Each structure stands twice: as C-alpha cells, then as structure tokens.
Amino acid sequence: MDMKKRIHLELRNRTPSDVKELVLDNCRSNEGKIEGLTDEFEELEFLSTINVGLTTVAHLPKLKKLKKLELSDNRISGGLEVLADKCPNLTHLNLSGNKIKDLSTIEPLKELGSLKSLDLFNCEVTNLNEYRDNVFKLLPQLTYLDGYDKEDKEAPDSDAEVYAEGLDDEDEDEDDEEEYDEDAPPGDEEDEEGEDDEEENEEEEEEDLSGEVGETMNCNKILNMYAALSKMRSVKFLDLNFICIILP
Known about the structure:
Layout: H1 3-11, E1 21-23, E2 46-48, E3 68-70, H2 83-86, E4 92-94, H3 103-106, E5 117-119, H4 131-138, E6 144-145, H5 158-230, H6 240-246
Parallel strand pairs: 1-2, 2-3, 3-4, 4-5, 5-6
Function: Multifunctional protein that is involved in the regulation of many processes.
Keywords: Leucine-rich repeat, Nucleus, Repeat
Pfam families: LRR_9 (PF14580)
C-alpha cells in the first residue's frame, strides 16, 4: 500500500486537523519521499514512518506541534537541517537503521532546542571512537542517546509509566467501589423501611376512601327509596329510620 492510501485509511473519516497520532509503518513511499502528508495535520504530535523506504525528509510538511518522529529502518543519509524549520518543537527523534555515517550529518539537529532523545542504533556513526561523548558535546540539549543518558542510566519507558499510572487509577476506582458497597446495606435498609411506610399509608388511604364511598352509596339508596315510596298513593307516612334498617 502506498503512503497516500495509507494516510487516507488512517484518517477514518476524520479531518487532518483532528489527528494527533499517525502511524504509517511499512507502507511504500514514492521515490523515497514523504507524500500525502500536508500542513493540514496541524495538531499532529506523533508521526511514525518506520520502514517505508525514505531517503529524504525534505518533503515533510510544517508540523509545529510534532513531538515525536519515528524514522527508523529507512535509507536517510542526510538533509536533517530541514527538521528545525519543519518540526521546531521535536523532543524525540529515532533515526535507527538509517545510512548515517558521520557526526556532521546530525550536526543540524543542534538547532532543535527541545530535542531530548535521539536514537541512532544500527547506524554506521555509532562505530566512531568516543561516539557517545562526541554526540553529547555536539548536541548539548540531549538527555538520552540510544536510550541512555551521559551516566549510562536507562531512559524511563514512557509507555510503561502511563500503563502503571493507569493501573493505579483502576485500583483507586476499585477501592472506591468497595467502600461504597460497604456503606450500601444500611442505605438499602432505610429504603426498604421507607417503602414499607409508604405502602401502609396507601392502604390506610384506600380503606378511608372505600368507607366514604360505601357511606355515599347507602345514602343514595335511602334517598332513591324515599322518593319511590313518596310517589305511592297508599303510603301516607314514611319513617326514614325504618328505611335505613331494611337496607342491606
């Protein structure tokens, strides 16, 4: 797959300005050049073009927010001076496995004032005498070269740190859930008691209402019977008390 198609695939219906990380590893570049990548990727912070056959970075667009650039396992032998203009805020640069033979090739990187980590594994330049000391002198802004600082202390694995922080956050969430579960039973009991009280009140209201309805119905029956008897010519006197007694 060529680089243009790969970029289109990686967009996944997003606009270039929405993309912060872009991985184009193992696709094919055209004549060793970066293609399909434009300055519309203005929010891009991480770009990986490992093993895509690059021979130059001259066609890299301006990516002012780019922090980490992976260029390992390509055929780059020079032209790194463009990086200071294209990616002025670069902090991590991986050039491992390229055709870098001498220190003069990486000298332009001193213009990258924010550069903290540089990897040159499997480049011929690493075979030079006092290679590490000379690189740190040439690029004083560097903290790590090939994964180690000047005192040969290994650089922290940023991915591992993020993963560990994620685990800590999960543990805290679980502890919070457990504490909540411990407090849950008393709350449930209170809810149950409240529901019981509501049910009792509803039953009492229903009883009162049924009693009122019954009394109303009895009175209606009495009045209807009184009216019917009053119309009878043979009845001259009506005793309402008697009528109340004979009603069911």
